[in-house]
Design a protein that fits this description.
The protein is built from 16 helices and no strands. The N and C termini lie far apart (62 Å).
């Protein structure tokens, strides 16, 4: 028995009967030889952690565009917070931590520069539409490793694709990430809004605060404990009725005071216009797209999709530099 087989056996002995067992994975899109050390979900995690799309997350906006200060979240720190929340819940429920971590680390790989402003822009201008969860799956399936993809397991791919509210992953591990994503962004977006002077903790309505707490630490602690308590020994992941109601009220509060706040979002229109302009430019100058992406058209992908592939992969900094290179006279730079 090699190390991987021993670890797979330990999963069967230690994890909940509702867990996703590595040895019982539905497999990969392309069959490949097993590793003698790592179970399949651990390999997924490692592949995502080492891919280029993961490294680019450090220079992509979470909520606030180019904030002044070193402590605001980026798409990478959001991803790491989602992973940590999800692993805490999975460990407590005796579910598969490797699968949870793989899904969490991969769930936003297809996100655009400038956060949801960039996503809205591509969705508006591209006739095919654009959704970051779909692009995240395309990133791991098609775009990474120079078009070879990461060849992840069906379970990890499902969790990445279905991490948004409108969808539901078929594994409990994917369902944990789906909720952990929401917990993370409510938690850190409010924290960043307080840091930016847009909100005060005391602005939170009593109907929310009395249920989930009045500080960032209290809210995060409440959500995690509630999910664990509600989901223990069940074949589903959820939260209590009171907590779910408070989360919906918190979501409405955040949209009103942060996500649609004119002060917080004053520059988003410029970011959207920049993304739309780049999309139109590269659609009309397709020869300037990198060769490793252009070959996707030979495989049947439309030009519009390939242009989205290129732009959505850009970091904020690279998108701005590219726009300046194309449209701003060099004598005006700096």
């Amino acid at each position: 028995m090699n190390i991987r087989e021993r670890l797979e056996q330990e999963e069967k002995e230690l994890l909940s009967p509702y867990a996703s067992f590595s040895a019982d994975s539905k497999g990969r899109l392309k069959e490949e030889e097993q590793c003698d050390i790592r179970p399949v979900f651990q390999r997924d995690r490692d592949r995502i952690l080492h891919c280029k799309a993961f490294r680019r997350l450090k220079d992509k906006t979470q909520v606030f565009l180019t904030p002044e200060g070193d402590h605001y979240r980026t798409r990478l720190t959001h991803t790491l917070e989602v992973s940590q929340n999800a692993r805490t819940i999975a460990k407590a429920l005796r579910l598969n931590e490797d699968l949870v971590e793989a899904i969490a680390l991969g769930h936003d790989l297809g996100h655009t520069p400038f956060g949801h402003a960039g996503e809205r822009a591509l969705n508006e201008v591209c006739p095919l539409g654009f959704k970051h969860n779909v692009q995240s799956l395309r990133t791991v399936d098609v775009l990474e490793k120079d078009g070879q993809g990461l060849n992840l397991t069906i379970e990890t791919r499902d969790g990445i694709l279905n991490h948004q509210t409108a969808s539901m992953p078929f594994t409990l591990e994917g369902q944990i990430v789906r909720l952990s994503d929401k917990i993370a962004y409510f938690h850190h977006d409010m924290d960043d809004a307080v840091r930016g002077g847009i909100l005060k903790e005391s602005d939170l309505p009593k109907s929310i605060g009395e249920v989930i707490g009045y500080t960032a630490a209290q809210r995060l602690d409440h959500f995690i404990h509630d999910i664990i308590t509600f989901s223990k020994d069940k074949n589903t992941i959820g939260m209590s009725e009171d907590t779910e109601k408070a989360m919906k009220e918190l979501r409405a509060f955040m949209f009103e005071h942060v996500y649609n706040n004119k002060r917080a979002k004053s520059e988003e229109g410029k970011a959207e216009n920049l993304v739309i302009t780049l999309y139109q430019y590269y659609l009309n100058h397709f020869d300037l797209i990198p060769d490793e992406l252009k070959v996707l058209c030979d495989k049947g992908d439309p030009k519009e999709q390939v242009v989205c592939d290129y732009i959505s992969a850009m970091t904020d900094r690279f998108a701005i530099a590219t726009y300046e290179e194309i449209y701003i006279p060099k004598c005006w730079h700096g």
